[in-house]
Structures are given as C-alpha cells and as structure tokens.
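Each lists chain and fold; for instance:
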Amino acid sequence: MKLLISNDDGIFAQGIQSLANALAAAGHEVSVVCPDRERSATGHGLTLHQPIRAEIVESIFEPTVKAWACSGTPADCVKLALWALLDKPPDFVLSGINHGPNLGTDILCSGTVSAAMEGFMEGIPSIAFSLASYTSQEFGAAVNFAVTLLAQLEKVPMAKPMLLNVNIPAVKQAEITGVAIARQGIRRYFDIFQKRTDPRGKSYYWLAGELLEDVEETPEPALLHDIPTDVQAIRDHKITVTPLQYNLTCGASLHSLGDWKFKDFLAQ
C-alpha cells in the first residue's frame, strides 16, 4: 500500500523512524512529511501568514522511504503532502508513533491526532499511533501492532474511511493484555503558570500543568456504558483503538436548544 506518515515530534523522533522503516520493510511504499522540529500540542493549527518550506531528507530513513522535513505544523505537513509533494493520494495517512499518550480530551490539542485528522478530512482512512509514555524508548510493541493492523486492513479494508486513534501501553509486548475498542475518556489538568523574568527584566509565563484526574464520564447514548474509556483500558495494559470524527456537534442538546425563544430579537 501507499502510505503517508507524519508526526508532531519532528523528523528526528525515534517513533516516526521506527514506524516508517518497519512499514517499508513490510513492503509498503512509504512517504514521510513531518515537521523539521518538535511541534507537539499544536492541535490543528495551520500556517497562513508565512511561507512553508519542505526539504528532502536523506540518510535518516531506509533508502526506499521518501522523506521531507517541513517548516509547518503537523496539519500543514499532511496538507502539503496531499496537495503538492505526492504524485497521487496515499491509501492511508498515519501519524506517529507519538512519544507520549493521546488519550481522552488530550486529543483536542494533539498535533499527532490532527495530522491524521487532516487525512481523514480529505476522505483518506487515517490512524494516529501513540506510545503511552514520555520516557520509554521501547517502540517495539507499538511498531509490531501498527504493522499487524495495516496488514489486516490491507486484507479487509474499512467499509468507509475513518480515523482511528491508537494508544499502546509502554510495556513489553508479552505484558499487553489485549486490544480494546474504546470510547474517548476525559482528562483534567491543574494548570499552573509559573511567572519568570528574562535577562532583560521582562516577565513571562511558563505553563506547567499537571494531570489532576481522569474523569469517568456518563456516556451518551446509554448503549456506550459497556464500552471502556481509552484512559481505563491503557491502565489495564490494553492497546486502545478509538474511532474519532471531526463533527463536534452535541446532538443530544439540539432538541433542548430548539425550545429557546428569540421572538423579541427577531421583532427588533
């Protein structure tokens, strides 16, 4: 298959090198377009007020991998690849393997998920991969699962394009207890802004938030009660696979908001 891979950790990240090289070794046609530096937590930001540059990169990946380092955000990288750098659309857009989890509400600011989301918005099936640790260097289990998942999807394609958010626990492969199709959980942070002073005496602030708690949400509709959250499944040493969408409409509230009256405003 023809695969496009991006990330938010940058061109030199171990996760993307491991993923791209393994998929190339498995016989896929791999192209890499990713940021030239760390662009974590940039969400779906786009570069609109300055040029985007892309430089061909050699010697980082296996010789069969075509790679570019891009000056833009993760979403920029996928846009640029699809509309300017690649000769034809890929069969899949992949993002990662991210160094750190993308669970629950963290996906809203995740550059990793946003790169995959950009592919999905163009009608291409997409997958975001994340290793649920910021310190572990053991990407073996995550790479093996990615190769296995792509092989399965090659044999049995998705009925329609979708975005899968995949998190792999940072344990040895033998310690992984299963694969859970999970719903998105909630993560809440205690945000602390540290006030500091630069060498010229001017104040600046540094965000130093810490995870306060993982919140168990009552799902809607009720039929989701039996489906675990991605946060809980990772705690149980399970790989999590969560289907995501870009439509953020709260359907359950549409009818109740329809009872609001705006006659006075319309009469003005």
About this structure: The chain has a mean pLDDT of 91. The longest strand covers residues 92-99. The chain is about 25% helix and 25% strand.
